[in-house]
Design goal:
Strand content of chain A: under 5%
Oligomer: heterodimer
Order of helices and strands of chain A: HHEEHHHHHHHHHHHHHHHHHH
Radius of gyration of chain B: 38 Å
Shape of chain B: elongated
Number of strands of chain A: 2
Shape of chain A: globular
Distance between the termini of chain B: 77 Å
Strand content of chain B: under 5%
Helix content of chain A: over 70%
Number of helices of chain A: 20
Number of domains of chain A: 1
Largest interface: A-B, 116 and 104 residues
Largest sheet of chain A: 2 strands, antiparallel
Chain lengths: ~500, ~800
């Protein structure tokens, strides 16, 4: 048995612990962080390529066979999500060195960051529904702590909102897991899929599926459960905002996909109108919220809500093309949004606020910043040849091919608003004359990760073909759940 | 086929070079050097395009592919035929003249690096649009033209009007772009390809498809917004905030013709139906009329030209909409003519603006003595625009009249020719307003500067264009055989033979022209009165203009709407959020179980034996829960919340699960501490008296949650669908895991992974608490320091 699959969980966990031990040795911590960041990225690349070449990978923890012990499962979906997560995380880590000045802050920030990373990788890998709950807890607890550690009043307040939502979702999650365990007597997701299948019409299965959708929808900020997101994403320290909008809201979407493409396959039809309706409301209302914002980080946070609506719409089509589009959307949006959040963080460093009226004239202050910001804005606005265009294109195409005319119409209208609020923010930040010249210029350390992500956005556009091949393969795999079941349970 | 790659990508390479060199370029004082160097880019493109001319007559159109996204049939492929070459020559040729003109136009302090960067980006994008053979390759370049136009309109970004104009152009053309994206996909559903040449051969399939109308409407929306057709024309006058070379280039000669281009490109596949003629021809005629009516009202010469451009674009669109072979040819001829005279006139406006410090007819007039050369150019340009012999405009105006006589699917005979003549009256009037008011009449006020003529460098480009206008009138055969015929062939799909001449004998179009001149003179004589009347109308009914929709409906209408949305879904109060989430979850859960036929059974509950201790604990538990709600003091509330946790743990003890209880105790203890700490930082509780309604809602939601969750739990306990895997643990725990306490073995072995991470969660929480405490200490330290200072 190859131990490759457990490394994406073990390395960040070990690093977090090591960083706590090395608390008083800043130099050593930096080396450890650099080493760990690169090695997790490398491991994730090799995991993804192994999955792509050899099919779904499994790892039985403690050697206990499938339905009895906990299994880690790596299919293309998890591989892609981990890859995305690690790209954003590496950039965010690099950024954090320039962003968090004080070493005392870094000493707490970085271990928590690696705990967070452990949680996300664990979530994507686990094949056990209860273990998923545990991984969610890890992520949530790390985010609470990360929010609290820099705590001014705003962060504490949004932390309180997050904690309340977190407790609520944990309670519902437990009720759902408890329910499904009582119904089937198993927690392994592949085993659940087998055992639920003959009973898909049972009323309690519908209730459990809805509870899962609710819990994961809450994580993904699906309307009407998005309330926590604008506060949390905008008040978190910027590297964490990038992580939150880049990868962590997608964890919720990931879980929805996992559950509805594996355990509740036969309920897809029943839930489709429900999910599509919520997706439309989410994208519309999110965009409306974004138009009204004067603070760049809040604008980006609302925009994330809106974009989650698009992704959920792709998921809600429940077709290979739609799911593929949603996966591509997640990758592309993750990269673009992370870069934009980090760009907003640069503004925060310059003037201590991300209020757009305080900024302006960046086109003269820092043309490099302006270029990166423009790429991000054009990407999110779906302007070709950036990857943003292909995320929009695939989604619209999947929708029209499936004859979902109403959702497609909403998506198109919302994308006009998206273009509007983005162009407005660009004008405000880069063109408008500024009241006071800032004394601090954007530093190279902060600009580099923004630039890397902006470049990736362009690369993903120019080289969209291999990525689309990958996401399509992942989507096909998701619509053949028997592959997953077979990989986990063996030839049963 | 390297020439086509050079043509399209060389401008992009140039703009990337400018971008890369910008740090250096910004430091040195370049004077006119940068413009001179940049002028080579359009020059090289132009010579490559001209070299393509000979092959147009021979053989089928050449294509060239670069794979991009194979899975969706998207590629960068290029097509060389008459239409693309005609547009290519316009784009690179006028591009060259505009760059030369801009060398004179841009003053020392202007940011030339950005100007040429954007301009080259635009030129590459525009060449990409016209040479593309794949709809999404074209779309890519199309959107890039929108972006570069956005950047160029906002070039003087410190001006509010520039930013307004740029945003308006982006929103309106963006709307069109989005519709077009959908339209192309719908077209793909009919044709199964994005390849233009293939689509053009499938005209019958397209026209007979039930998706024909939606595809046409969506794609035409893209074209109409880009080419400033009514009612989307409103962005073009505001785009005039751009520097004049940009207006001459993007907003008269090239970019606004992109929509025309696409309509022309697709017309072999789409045209020939009543719907096509009604939509494209109808919108075109309306635009022609509206543009003309608005143009005669303007006193700003640039605005006058902007509305005249709208009107002329409408005329071309109308000719394409008529869909006959002759009208297609006429459209091609007029595209060429319009580009020449309009670019020349724009440059003259730039010269007037430079020379007088303003371009408003209130201040500018009687310029023919001070600016003799500009006057000659304006004379040629205006007469061509008015459709008078001996200039190119006359030929195409005659062709336009001729084509209005043979419009298929015309609803009422003579209606279209009448409308055409009526609209042309305005064309005549605004052309003469430009010429006579600008160069003969004396202006009521004095201009800021004393007028002076531009130097040779500034006059070169307009003189060249004026020469072209004359040639197009006197010797049209110079262009018709090699350039216009292949282009017309691409539009009509049939071999074209153009017989362009000023004199065709006395025929109906000539009579129509005659009427146009007579009535046009009458209209021009009454212009001042009519202008007053127009002023009155627009003051009385401002909502008639589509501008009203954009300004009041969009710019001013959306913010209140978004505020309302925010008020609805983001009140900022946690309790609202919780209520919304709880009720949403409970109602939808109920829905998804009730719709499957949920029946309540309580067998297990009734069979369960209960001890007194358990009942007592449960009662205490309920009391503690109730106390949590009722306590006004936060600390007491948190403590009684903790109490519920401890009591649950005690229930575990009673039910014989001490390990579980121990865990629960620990978790509860930590949670209570954590919550207390968090609340330490939260602003103090301020009591508000909840209204009766709020209270009732709170109670209703709480009851809902309680009832649904209780029933859910009871039901779940009763419905074991399949046998549990738990027996495996009982059987193997001692044999395989070496432990007799099965629960412990499950925790540390079978599911040890869970346990490890639960411990992690615990550690993270402790770390968080530590961070907060540290913070608190620091905050205190700061507080103590302040009074000392």
């Amino acid at each position: 048995m190859s131990h490759l699959l457990i490394l994406p969980v073990l390395i960040p966990l070990g690093t977090a612990i090591l960083l706590l031990i090395l608390r008083f040795l800043p130099m050593a911590r930096r080396i450890v962080i650099a080493f760990a960041g690169v090695s997790i990225l490398g491991v994730n690349i090799s995991v993804l390529s192994k999955i792509y070449k050899e099919g779904i990978q499994t790892y039985q923890l403690g050697g206990w066979p499938a339905p009895y012990g906990i299994v880690l499962v790596g299919d293309l979906l998890s591989g892609i999500m981990m890859m995305l997560g690690s790209i954003i995380a590496v950039c965010a880590l690099f950024y954090s060195f320039g962003y968090l000045k004080e070493d005392g802050q870094q000493a707490i920030f970085h271990p928590l960051f690696f705990f967070l990373w452990t949680g996300t990788n664990g979530t994507f890998l686990t094949g056990d529904i209860f273990n998923l709950f545990v991984m969610f807890e890890i992520m949530l607890m790390s985010i609470y702590s990360l929010l609290a550690m820099l705590g001014d009043k705003k962060q504490i307040e949004s932390g309180l909102k997050l904690i309340s939502m977190g407790l609520l979702s944990s309670a519902i999650f437990l009720a759902a897991v408890g329910g499904i365990y009582a119904l089937t007597g198993t927690l392994n997701m592949a085993d659940l899929a087998v055992k639920i299948k003959p009973h898909a019409g049972h009323p309690l299965v519908g209730a459990v599926a809805m509870l899962f959708l609710g819990v994961f929808g809450l994580k993904a900020a699906m309307m009407p459960m998005h309330f926590w997101l604008p506060d949390v994403h905008s008040s978190a320290p910027t590297p964490i905002s990038a992580m939150l909008s880049g990868i962590l809201i997608k964890v919720g979407v990931y879980a929805i996909i996992r559950v509805f493409c594996l355990i509740f396959v036969d309920l897809q039809g029943a839930f489709q109108p429900f999910i599509l309706t919520l997706a439309c409301i989410t994208m519309f209302m999110g965009a409306m919220g974004a138009v009204a914002q004067t603070d760049l980080k809040r604008l980006l946070a609302y925009s994330s809500v809106s974009q989650i609506g698009y992704i959920l719409m792709g998921v809600g089509f429940f077709s290979v093309a739609g799911m593929g589009a949603a996966l591509f959307y997640m990758i592309s949006h993750g990269i673009i949004k992370a870069s934009l959040f980090m760009a907003a963080g640069i503004l925060k460093k310059m003037k201590g606020t991300t209020e757009m009226s305080e900024h302006g004239n960046m086109i003269n202050i820092s043309p490099v910043f302006t270029l990166f910001f423009l790429i991000g804005v054009a990407g999110l606005g779906g302007i070709p040849p950036s990857s943003g265009f292909f995320m929009k294109f695939q989604l619209i195409k999947a929708g029209l091919d499936g004859a979902f005319y109403l959702p497609v119409f909403v998506a198109l209208v919302v994308s006009l608003f998206t273009l509007f609020y983005l162009a407005q923010s660009w004008q405000k930040v880069c063109l408008m004359p500024q009241k006071e010249e800032p004394t601090i210029r954007p530093s190279f350390k902060l600009l580099l990760p923004v630039g890397v992500l902006a470049l990736l956005c362009l690369v993903l556009g120019f080289a969209a073909d291999p990525i689309i091949t990958l996401t399509t393969a992942a989507s096909q795999q998701l619509f053949s759940p028997e592959l997953y079941i077979k990989a986990v349970m063996g030839s049963m | 086929m390297t020439s086509i790659l050079t043509i399209v990508f060389f401008p992009f390479v140039a703009s990337l070079l400018i971008l890369a060199l910008s740090p250096v370029l910004n430091k040195v004082n370049m004077g006119k050097k940068l413009g001179t160097v940049v002028a080579f880019v359009p020059f090289i493109c132009l010579s490559f395009i001209l070299s393509l001319l000979p092959q147009l007559k021979t053989g089928p159109p050449a294509t060239f592919h670069i794979p991009w996204v194979k899975s969706y049939g998207i590629e960068l492929s290029f097509l060389v035929d008459g239409l693309s070459v005609l547009f290519g020559i316009l784009i690179s040729g006028i591009g060259l003249l505009v760059v030369i003109y801009s060398i004179w136009y841009l003053s020392e302090k202007e940011d030339k690096v950005k100007f040429y960067l954007y301009l080259m980006m635009f030129m590459g994008a525009m060449l990409g649009v016209v040479f593309s053979n794949n709809l999404f390759g074209m779309f890519t370049f199309w959107e890039l033209t929108s972006i570069s136009s956005f950047l160029l309109i906002g070039f003087w970004y410190h001006k509010e009007e520039s930013r307004y104009g740029a945003m308006k152009a982006l929103v309106i053309t963006g709307l069109g772009g989005i519709a077009m994206l959908a339209g192309f996909i719908v077209l793909y559903q009919i044709t199964d390809t994005f390849d233009v040449t293939k689509i053009l051969t499938m005209g019958d399939v397209i026209k007979s498809s039930h998706l024909y109308v939606p595809a046409l409407i969506l794609i035409f929306l893209g074209c109409a917004t880009k080419s400033a057709q009514f009612p989307f024309h409103i962005w073009l006058p505001n785009a005039m905030e751009a520097p004049t070379p940009v207006s001459a280039y993007l907003h008269s000669a090239t970019m606004v013709k992109a929509g025309i281009f696409l309509v022309a490109r697709l017309s072999p596949a789409f045209s020939g139906t009543a719907f096509w003629t009604g939509l494209v021809g109808g919108i075109g005629l309306i635009t022609m009329l509206v543009g003309g009516v608005m143009a005669i009202k303007q006193t700003d010469l640039k605005a006058l030209l902007a509305y005249s451009t709208i009107s002329q674009l409408g005329m071309i669109m109308a000719m394409l909409g008529f869909g006959t072979q002759y009208s297609g040819e006429a459209a091609i001829v007029h595209i060429m003519n319009h580009a020449a005279f309009k670019a020349a006139l724009f440059m003259i406006v730039g010269i007037i603006d430079h020379g007088c410090g303003t371009r408003d007819l209130t201040y500018v007039g009687n310029l023919r003595k001070e600016m003799p050369h500009s006057f000659k150019i304006a004379f040629i340009g205006c007469l061509s625009m008015a459709g008078l012999p001996i200039f190119g405009g006359f030929i195409s105006k005659e062709m336009f009249y001729e084509s209005t006589l043979h419009v298929p699917f015309a609803p009422i005979p003579y209606l279209i020719p009448t409308v055409a003549v009526f609209a042309s009256l305005f064309t005549f009037a605004y052309s003469f307003k430009f010429l006579i008011w600008g160069f003969f009449y004396k202006a009521p006020e004095h201009p800021p500067h004393h007028p002076h003529e531009a130097p040779v460098l500034g006059l070169f480009s307009p003189v060249f264009l004026a020469l072209m206008v004359v040639l197009l009138g006197l010797a049209p055969s110079l262009f018709s055989h090699s350039l216009l015929e292949p282009a017309a062939m691409a539009v009509t799909g049939k071999t074209a033979e153009l017989h362009l001449a000023l004199w065709h004998g006395v025929n109906t179009p000539l009579v129509m022209s005659f009427f146009t001149v007579i009535l046009g003179v009458v209209l021009f004589m009454r212009l001042k009165k009519i202008n007053l009347f127009q002023e009155g109308i627009s003051n009385a009914v401002p909502w008639l203009s589509p501008n009203f929709v954009y300004n009041k409906g969009f710019l001013e209408g959306v913010p209140p709407l978004t505020q309302r949305c925010l008020w609805w879904f983001q009140s900022g109060y946690l309790r609202h959020y919780l209520m919304a989430i709880f009720s949403f979850l409970m109602i939808s859960t109920l829905y998804f179980s009730l719709s499957k036929g949920w029946v309540l059974r309580l067998d297990t509950l009734l069979k369960t034996e209960v001890t007194l201790a358990q009942v007592a604990t449960l009662v205490l538990l309920a009391c503690a829960a109730l106390a949590t709600i009722l306590f006004k003091n936060r600390i007491s509330a948190i403590l009684s919340l903790g109490m519920t946790g401890f009591l649950v743990a005690f229930l575990y003890v009673l039910m014989g699960a001490p390990d579980l209880a121990l865990t629960q105790y620990l978790v509860e203890a930590v949670s209570v501490i954590l919550i207390l700490l968090v609340f330490y930082f939260v602003p103090p509780y301020f009591e508000e008296k909840p209204t009766k309604n709020t209270k009732a809602m709170n109670i209703a939601v709480s009851v809902l949650v309680g009832v649904v969750m209780t029933f859910y739990m009871l039901m779940v306990m009763d419905s074991h669908l399949v046998s549990s895997i738990a027996s495996y643990y009982l059987e193997t725990s001692e044999k395989l895991a070496g432990g007799r306490n099965v629960v412990n073995v499950v925790i540390v072995d079978y599911r040890g992974f869970d346990t490890m991470f639960e411990i992690c969660v615990f550690s993270i929480a402790i770390l968080g608490i530590y961070a907060m405490l540290r913070l608190k200490k620091k905050a205190k330290a700061v507080q103590e320091e302040v009074p000392v200072k």
